[in-house]
Amino acid sequence: MLTAGAPILGPGGEFYGIAGLDIALEAIERIVGKADPQLTQLDGVVDDFAYLVSAQGRIIVHPDRSLMIGQNNPGGSVLDLPAGAEIMAAQSGS
Fold first, then answer.
1. Given 52, 59, 66, 85, which is the most exposed site by the fewest CB atoms within 10 A?
2. How many domains is the chain partitioned into structurally?
3. Could you tell me if residue 77 is inside a domain?
4. Within a domain: residue 17?
């Protein structure tokens, strides 16, 4: 489960509350699985796939489920994947 939250502010910036959302990892897997790796494919790479990594470098969604965050599993490190260091050094993902 991934939880996201955001503050709700009034016109004058006053705090009204928090809006939250829980998303099941299975739903995130389906969304990531629909990503088109051809859009960012590197020359010579033929077996691209998409995966999702947290800002801290933990693997949230990956085709190899043993790398994913889950019960009793903190998630693998993106640094252990090919190009992981470059991914973590980037300002944002794609």
1. 66
2. 1
3. yes
4. no
